[in-house]
Amino acid sequence: MANTSTEATHYDRKGRLIDVETWAGLFQDKKYQALGQSKTPKGRYLVSTVWLGIDHSWGLNGGKPLIFETMVFQLHKKRTEQIRETTMRILAKLLHKFYYPTSISRKEVACLRASSEKEALEDHKQLLKEWTAKE
Q1: Are 114 and 21 in contact (CB under 8 A)?
Q2: Euclidean distance between the first and final Cα of the chain, in Å?
Q3: Partners of 107 in the beta sheet?
Q4: Which of 60, 56, 58 is CA-nearest to residue 114?
Q5: DSSP character at residue 106
């Protein structure tokens, strides 16, 4: 059952309650944490599914803890974004100023959370299909 208090509740990949020390050890194991990473065929998006091990439902998911997350990240910028950033870099150089792009890391474009490994892998397949169609 999900925790409705403000204290974090920790779970292993099977959905069993574990203490924070066990969770911390498992969380450092990237092979344990990762369920899958897939790029769309044209390489514009990355779908990543991981075990978080902390209940992100805050008691709002009918008692089922949300301990897995599938996210979609944009890997390549649109041509207009590339042109804008190149223009800003040139202007900054001409004006002897520094230019920092607005997004240094990948841009998150979608996120789903799940209670079980099976649901998380289904979410992974679903988002990969959806974002492949958007390329």
Answers
A1: no
A2: 39
A3: 74
A4: 56
A5: P
**pTM, whole model, 2 decimals?**
0.73
**Overall size of the chain counted in residues:** 135
Bridge partner residues of 50 (DSSP):
34, 69
Structure tokens at 70: 């599938």
pLDDT-derived band at 77 (thresholds 50, 70, 90) equals low
The residues near 23 (Cβ < 8 Å, ≥ 6 apart) are 10, 11, 12, 53, 54
pLDDT in tens, 8-58: 689 999 999 999 999 999 999 999 999 999 999 988 889 999 999 999 887
Tokens 């209940």 locate to: 55
Token pair 């902390």 is at which residue? 54
Which residues does residue 114 pair with via DSSP β-bridges, in sequence order? 68
